[in-house]
Amino acid sequence: MMSVSSQGGVARARQVNLSSSLRLVRGLGLVAAAVALVACGGGKEGGATQVAAKVNKEEISVHQINFVLQRQPNLKPEQAQAASKRVLEGLVDQELAVQQAVEQKLDRDPRTVMAIEAARREILSRAYMDKLTGGVEKPTDAEISQFYASRPALFSQRRVYSLVEFNIEAGGDKAQKEALAAQFNGVKGADALAAQLRAAGVKFAARPSTVPAESVPTALLGKLSTMGEGQAMSNVTPVGINVLVLNAAKSAPVSEAQAKAAITSFLVNDKKRKLAVDEMKRLREAAKIEYLGQFSGGVASANVSASAAEEPASLLPAAAAASEALDATDLQKGLSGLK
């Protein structure tokens, strides 16, 4: 007979396995070699079957396994068999949970119905956009060279910035804040600014960070690339003043060859984004859209959005907007040869 402690260990192991399996299933991801391996390999003597497992009366097919494997990046052919088995166990756990949900009529719960419909709409709209942008061509070598040459702060003159960001509490209207912010632009270093604020009894929070050029928003990079060590720039926010002090900048240039993958990815995604924006504009113009009830006034005016954009909460957001930033991962792959 199994002891209580042994039973507990098995239960904990099962719980860990369930969590891992569900995470694997939620990851959803195909490599052609993996699909071929799963579909063609490991068959019984009676021949290959498209059914991988039966859970009570429900079947789990090889196609379901392949669908999950589709979006697992960098899966090597030799890893496919083990990965497919892990995916299958995750699908078994998922199917057991689904059967319980249906048995308890959770599929009829209004919140579940709404979630399913929302997922359906998301999948369909994404499928349409994927089809629309699927034919976007890769940029030519000339386009890549032109992009590289036009952005020296990102490439040939790339730097890694050591910064200190100050969020300073300040009252008054915008004009008063701007007048106060102008005084901070002349400070010489983060320590000097902190001492000045403490002496004046001003509340503030300081956050140091080190960021490469590709992680800096385009609108900010142009000015930051021309600043010297110890210099600062400021911006008025709804709750006070944001000051960014450049402590140091280390030169880290990138060649065109090293940046090619990142530039290619950016230009392709930018073309897709513009194509999607143009298509949505066309669809809106062709459709009859009527706003009713509390939304009868239509969408918020562009002026409201613009005024909000004029006062960002931070000069240095956690990540640059996808439409204006290079993929830092792609760029780091190009830089790996330097290490």
TrEMBL record:
InterPro entries found in the cross-reference section: PPIase_EpsD, PPIase_PpiC, Trigger_fact/SurA_dom_sf
Keyword list, A-Z: Isomerase
Residue ranges occupied by any PpiC domain in the UniProt entry: 139-250
Keyword GTP-binding among record annotations: no
GO molecular function, one term: peptidyl-prolyl cis-trans isomerase activity
Record Pfam families: Rotamase_2, SurA_N_3
Gene3D superfamilies: 1.10.8.1040
Protein name: EpsD family peptidyl-prolyl cis-trans isomerase
Organism from which the protein derives: Sphaerotilus hippei
